[in-house]
Amino acid sequence: MGGNVDVSVGTVWQVFLVALVTDLATGLGAVPFAFTRALSKKWEGISCAVAGGMMISASVFSLAEQGLRQGSVWEIVLGMLGGATFFWLTARLLEGNEWHIADLSTQDSKQAVLIVTAMFVHSIPEGIAIGVGYATGNLRFGLLLAIAIAVHNIPEGIAVSVPLRRKGVSTPTCAAWAIFTSIPQPLFAVPAFLLVSVFHPLLPFGLGFAGGAMIFLVAAELMPESVANCSKSENAWGFMFGFVLMLLFTSSLGL
C-alpha cells in the first residue's frame, strides 16, 4: 500500500474533515438558484448539459481512471454495469411507489427523487475512495483525490437542485438535499481508511459502480431534459464545456 500509514487520531480527523468538505461542496450546486427563483427553460437545459458533461468527465477521468489503477478493467466494467443496473431498477421501483422528497411526491417530481436516490448510493464508493487514498500512505494523493471528488460534487448538486427548484423548493432546502446525497462520503471515508485491507479489494468495483450510475443518470435523465429545453447546439456546447472544464481540473491536480 505504499509506505507506513499514520493512523493517529489527528490523521483520522483529517480524513473525516476532508470527506465532510467534499460532502458540503455538493451544496454549492444550489448557489446559482439563490439569485433566481427558477432558470429559464433555455438555461435549465444548458445547466443540465453542463452538469452532464462534468459528470461524464468525472466518471471517466476520475472514477474509472482511479479504479483502473487499483484493479482490472473487468472489475470496472462490472461495476459500471452494476451502477447502470442499479439506476435502471431504481427508476422502475419509483414508477410503482409513492416516494417523497422535500414535500414533493414522485408524481410531482420523479426526476428529483430518482436523482437524490442515485446520488446518495453512488456517494458510498466515493467516500471509500477518499479513505483508501489516504491509506496509501501518501497524504497528498488522498487530499488531491478528495478535492477532485469535491469539485465533481458541485455539478451533482446542480443536478439535484434543478428539478427541486423548478417545483418551487427553496434554495436552502435544495442545498440541504444536495448535501444529504453526499453524506456517505464522510461516513465511509474513516472506516475505509482504518480498514483498508477490507475495503481496498472492493474499490475498483465501487468506483466503476459510481461511474456507471452517473453515466446512466446523465443519459437517461439529464440529456433528455436538456434537449427538451434548449437547442441541440446549446446542448452539445453545454456538455462540451462541462466535460472539458472537469477534465482540465482533474488534469491540473495530477490525478
Major sheet: arrangement of strands: 1-2
Low-pLDDT sequence parts: none
Radius of gyration: 18 Å
**Which term fits the overall shape?**
globular
Tally of extended strands? 2
SSE topology string: HHHEEHHHHHHH
Query: How much of the polypeptide forms β-strand, as a percent range?
Result: under 5%
Q: Which whole number gives the mean pLDDT?
A: 80
Descriptive terms for the model:
79% helix; 10 helices; mainly alpha; 255 residues
What can you tell me about this protein's structure?
The chain is mainly alpha-helical. The chain is 79% helix and 2% strand. It has ten helices and two strands, in the order H-H-H-E-E-H-H-H-H-H-H-H. It has helices at 9-25, 41-70, 73-95, 106-135, 139-166, 171-181, 184-194, 196-199, 203-229, 232-252; strands at residues 100-101, 104-105. Strands 1-2 form a two-stranded antiparallel ribbon. A hairpin with a 2-residue loop joins strand 1 and strand 2 (104-105). Helix 1 packs parallel to helix 5 (139-166) and helix 1 runs antiparallel to helix 7 (184-194).
